Amino acid sequence: MLRMLFLIALGSGLIASPVTAANLKVTSAGAVRGLIAQIIDDYSRQTGQKFEFTVGTTGQLRAIIASDFPADLVITSAPLMGELENTGNLVPGSRADLGRVGLGIVVREGARVPDLSTAESFKKAVIDAPRIAIVDPTSGAVYDPHLYAMYKQLDITGVVAKKAVMQIGGKEVAEAVAAGQAELGVTFISEIVPIKGAKLAGPLPPALQGYTGYAAAIPKASTEPAAARAFIDALISPAMAKRWTNAGFEAPK
């Protein structure tokens, strides 16, 4: 699990509201980490709000939320958010759907981009790649069930297993390919786009694609519910739409 702490000091030229003395504790899925970190940085400079930002895979988030890890706002995959809603531990009506993201193929910047237009061409790209970066199944990536069903469908489960370069998360998959540790990787498009030296070769072909929605909500245990609501409103404001698109997300469906 990656934990990032943002303690942004107030400056005389910043917008004055809302300002709170306490840090807003945001616990987030890895697929949105790059964009949320950027928005946190901008929001902090504009409002003076301070943040504690914790990031993990769906499996890691499930574990830390279950352990009563303190959070004022949670940003998770839609399936996990559904689980949390069923516990009754979220503020009713606080959920906001943020967007959905598909799976993409990452290659190193400057490398040949394989044909990924069909299921068969994707299969060939996997077979041809000497090494493939994937998330370690024990990390609990939300898209693992879809990926492994796809590998089985294409009859390449054994191929992937032999060539796998295991990583702890999707961001690390893209970083491994950028560093030359693998020639190909599969992860969320949003985790490929921000990585220097990594190139999005393309999304999975439509016949293989799987989308995951993401949502934000406020736990009942939040000590800063008003600040959390204000930040959610900023995330879903029309002014943010282009930033979500540029980060690889589509509007929620």
Q: Give the % helix.
A: 25-40%
By CATH reckoning, the class of the largest domain would read Alpha Beta
Strand numbers in spatial order across the main sheet: 1-3-2-4-11-5-12
Say which CATH homologous superfamily of the largest domain is assigned. Answer: Periplasmic binding protein-like II
N to C succession of SSEs: EEHEHEHEEHEHHEHEHEEHHE
Q: What topology does this entry show?
A:
Layout: E1 2-6, E2 24-29, H1 33-47, E3 51-56, H2 58-66, E4 73-77, H3 78-87, E5 96-101, E6 103-108, H4 119-128, E7 132-135, H5 144-153, H6 157-163, E8 164-167, H7 170-178, E9 184-188, H8 189-192, E10 198-203, E11 212-217, H9 225-235, H10 241-246, E12 249-250
Parallel strand pairs: 2-3, 2-4, 7-8, 7-9
Antiparallel strand pairs: 1-3, 4-11, 5-11, 5-12, 6-9, 6-10
Describe the structure.
The radius of gyration is 19 Å and the shape is globular. It contains ten helices and twelve strands. Residues 1-20 have low confidence and may be disordered. The protein folds into two domains: 2-100 and 213-250, D-Maltodextrin-Binding Protein, domain 2, CATH 3.40.190; 103-203, D-Maltodextrin-Binding Protein, domain 2, CATH 3.40.190. The strands form two sheets. It has a seven-stranded mixed β-sheet with strand order 1-3-2-4-11-5-12. Strands 8-7-9-6-10 form a five-stranded mixed β-sheet. It is an alpha/beta fold and 253 residues long.
